Structures are given as C-alpha cells and as structure tokens.
Amino acid sequence: MLVVQIVLLHVALHNRPPVGAQYSINKPFAGMEEGDSYVTRPFNFWQWRSRKPYWQFVLYFTGVLAILEVLIGFNFAYVGFQGYFALGVEAILPIPQVLENERRRSCKGFRLSVLANWLVGDVFKMTYFFLSEGEVPLAFKACGLIQTVCDCYLGIQYWRFGSGEKGQEEEKDSRLA
Description:
By secondary structure, this protein is mainly α. The chain is built from six helices and no strands. The longest helix is centred in the last third of the chain and has 24 residues, at about 140-160. The protein starts with a helix and ends in a 16-residue tail after the last helix.
C-alpha cells in the first residue's frame, strides 16, 4: 500500500502542468486570493510549487515515525494514540470536500462514481461494525459513523447542487484569448 501511494505521488508530481509565466493557468494556485480558502495552510503545506518539498516532507515524516517506533514503539499509549489518530484522520477525510462544495455551491469536479463507492463502502463497514458477532471497539464504530454522516451529507450536496450548472461549458481563461 505504501509503495502504491509513493508511486501515485510520483506520477501526480511528474504530470503536473509546468509552472508557466506569471498569472498563467499553468501556475498552480496563482489565481488564489487570500480569502479563497477557509483555512490558510501554514507554509503552504502540500500546495508547494516544486516537487522537492513533497519528497522532503515524506522523508522527514518517515524518519520521525521510524525514530519514534524504535524509541517508544513498545509503549501502549503511543500505539493507541497512533491508532486513534489514524481513525480520526480517516473519519474526517470527506470534510474538505464538503466545505469546498458548500463554498462553491456546486459539486462540479466531484465524480458521482466516487461518492457511490464511498457510500457502498460505508454500508459494508457499518454492517460489519454493528452486525458482526465479534467485539468491534467503540472507536471504530464512532469514527465509522462520523465518516458515514459526512459521506451522506456529500450525497445531499450532490442532490442539492448537482455536478455543475447545466448547459455551462468549461470556462475559458480570458488571459488565453
């Protein structure tokens, strides 16, 4: 799984449009204004223009986790914290998409097939969590419910806003004309 994620990051970074002239549509985040996002990311986290910061972050993050694993990997509190943190991150993954859809009042660019797969996955997950004969920890059930609620709200947004305005062609950048 980790190898696949590294390969996907490499492909995504390698196939990004090159940084063009100032204010070009090929310059990532060039048109963003200060108020375009709900939260300004410190150090433009994960919105860097060059490839190097992405790989530096991945290496530093991996190094820090490896050192922590060697030093305190036997500590139940540390292992528990890692587990709860991972569950929490997984539970709130849909929230940025929910906020962006609300901000734009549209689900343009968000594929219905992605939503359908998320909802089907939620059904299977909730079925297992609540109907299995074995004991499923409360943290899994709670985080699963949070994620399911977020995914269902994405479904409501898709119903409310649709996938974009009907009849609207892709907007062309006037600077290209």
